[in-house]
Amino acid sequence: MTTPKTPVADVGGAAPAARPTDLQPAAADFAAAYPVRPVPATGPVDTAPIATTPAAVEELDGLWRAVVQETRTRGNDIHLPISLAFAERLCRAYPDADAELVRVATLLHDTGWAHVDESRILSEGFTGDWRKANIRYEHEKQGCDVARRVLPGLGYSVEFIERVCRIIDGHDTRPVALSLEDALMRDADRLWRFDQAGIALASSWFKMDPATYTDRLATEIVPELITQAAVDMASADLDRSNALLKTAVIR
Prior knowledge:
Elements: H1 23-33, H2 61-66, H3 76-93, H4 99-108, H5 118-125, H6 134-150, H7 158-168, H8 180-191, H9 196-205, H10 210-221, H11 228-245
């Protein structure tokens, strides 16, 4: 199955041992290929509100239907569609990327939350050194299991599925991106937080008021973005969200 290219950081133990051990060369190759950070865009960058351009890739409707259960945990039914819309924009800004890989990895990246202990998601995954929380490693592994379960029946090849899993496994816990597609998915996963819907959900997860959360977005999350297009989108969204939510006053 193919869809066309878009034209236009430990709780209770160590991380799972199953993660591939050959990641450093891939990360080094990506860094060498894209030495300027944030990575400059080669296509158009759309900074309008994301609601104006929802992702409408009908080829993915079957995949959405296959993971409805997984969208009903931790706000995935809001997080995943918004992240996919940002992924579409990023693919237009970086037309050299494999857009199909970015789309599928983005759609599936957090489906693993539906297959972990839900009572631990907020208590472990959004407190303290949350990037190294075991439950985050667990949800990445479970997300790969979802991909390997649902994608074969939709016509995706074993090779493509493993490329998807390579991105999902580590999207929260691995400090570096391994490819342009990996970078775009990681940026899309962060960009949704700058939209008002993302701020509403995620600020409650982290037990922060909107003003404190948007301050965190500016100081911690923007510097994590890998591509210049994502920085531009995040900055525009953050300005709009701060104005709408009056965070300069309500703090």
